[in-house]
Amino acid sequence: MLSPSSPVLQSLLLASLPEDVLQRWIPELEPVDMTLGQVVYEVGEAPDYAYFPTSTVVSILYVMKNGESAEIAIVGNEGVVGISLFMGGGATSSRAVVQNAGRGYRLNAQSLLREFTRGGPVMQLLLRYTQALITQMTQTAACNRHHLLDQQLCRWMLLSLDRLRGNELVMTPKLIGNMLGISSDGVQEGAAELEKLGLIAYNNGTIVVLDRPGVEARSCECYGVVRKEYDRLLPGAIGA
Question: How confident is the model over 203-225, as a mean pLDDT?
Answer without folding.
Answer: 91
